Amino acid sequence: MHGILLFAHGARDPAWARPFESIADAMRSAAPEQPVALAYLELMQPDIGSAAADLMAAGCDSITVVPLFLGAGGHVRRDLPQRLDELVRQYPGVRFDATPAIGETPQIVHAIATAALQLVNAP
Amino acid sequence: MHGILLFAHGARDPAWARPFESIADAMRSAAPEQPVALAYLELMQPDIGSAAADLMAAGCDSITVVPLFLGAGGHVRRDLPQRLDELVRQYPGVRFDATPAIGETPQIVHAIATAALQLVNAP
Fold it and tell me: Which one in A47, A77, B78, B121 has a CA-CA gap of 20 to 30 Å to B60?
């Protein structure tokens, strides 16, 4: 089974996590057969290792990490690959890969541009 | 004239800024009559004060800040209001306001959930 691990930054304020939890919920509603876990780089739990373990416990032998970052800086280009390398070493029977940062996909650039104009110019 | 000030976090890696520049470009294409500036909280230039001055120099007497953050933590709830207060004091003839963080809008939650499933399950 192929699981999805959403990887977000984390913050001190618990309210920060709400959109990320909503994204995970929307994905579970749209694809109920596909396990979706949410993990944080720092300041929030679970971390990526715990979330990966949850997906494996749910039967996943393949896990794709989706970085929920708008821009791809050190967290996506350096921290995430380090953590993925650790997981690959720890769980040789599971296939891990990662997509680009979600903000780098053209449809998200377009969606944000559209939503920003709507927010600003709403009556 | 009503200007839009996109407010992003900033990062050490210049490549981090690409999606934000693409968002600003997409908005300028969609609404060529509306000035759009992009500013960063830290690590990148311009800062919010310089970007606001650019919008005013372009004739804006009203500026709406759109926080390009997925979650609203301390940067959106504390740092941004402090900077807006400074701008309001510095430029009493200009109206400033701010929208919620872009990631908190339902259409962006939906767009990210859809894009994430497409990225993971693309052939």
Answer: B78
Chain B environment of A66 (Cβ under 8 Å) = 116, 119-120
Q: SS3 for chain A, per residue? A: CEEEEEEECCCCCHHHHHHHHHHHHHHHHHCCCCCEEEEECCCCCCCHHHHHHHHHHCCCCEEEEEECCCCCCHHHHHHHHHHHHHHHHHCCCCEEEECCCHHHCHHHHHHHHHHHHHHHHCC
Q: State the nearest Cα–Cα gap between A58 and chain B, in angstroms.
A: 18
Output the pTM of the full model: 0.96
Instruction: State the smallest CA–CA distance between residue A116 and chain B in angstroms.
Output: 7
Q: Which residues on A lie below 8 Å from B79 (Cβ)?
A: none
Report CA torsion sign: B18, B20, B23, B29: negative
Check CB contact under 8 Å for A119 and B108: no
CB contact under 8 A, B107 and A111: yes
Q: Which residues face B3 on adjacent strands?
A: B63
pLDDT tens digits, residue range A90-113?
999 999 999 999 999 999 999 999
Model ipTM over 0.95: yes
In angstroms, the CA A63 to CA A107 distance is: 23
A29 to chain B, closest Cα gap in Å: 10
CB-based contact B71 A18, cutoff 8 Å: yes
